[in-house]
Amino acid sequence: MNEENEAAVVVLITAGSREEAARLAEMLVGARLAACVQILPEMESIYHWQEQIRREPEFLLLAKTTANCFGALEREVRALHSYETPEIVALPVSAISAPYLSWLTGNVKSHN
Prior knowledge:
- By secondary structure, the protein is α+β, with helices and mostly antiparallel strands.
- It is built from 3 helices and 5 strands.
- It has helices at about 20-30, 70-80, 100-105, and strands at about 10-15, 35-40, 45-50, 50-65, 90.
- Strands 1, 2, 3, 4 and 5 form a 5-stranded antiparallel beta sheet that branches.
- The longest helix has 13 residues, at about 20-30.
- It is elongated.
């Protein structure tokens, strides 16, 4: 196993509705692109878009996966997402319990 490719990452994804967030989460777990996806409650996002400051309600997904799944995860999210430029940001995990890492890597497909 290549440790770098199997490194755990948490991917942040925003969605404009609870339904879209659930659809994305179920697709990611069903396709084994993430071992677990949590959907956080509605929040307010303030951002620049097309030369304007926007304020919109959004839902945040936290997808637990591995670095080597990121490319496939990104492609699938972009294909299904309603946003022109969805947020898909992977954060490295600096420490993780061995049993959880074993469970995580056992529940995602390898994408070498």
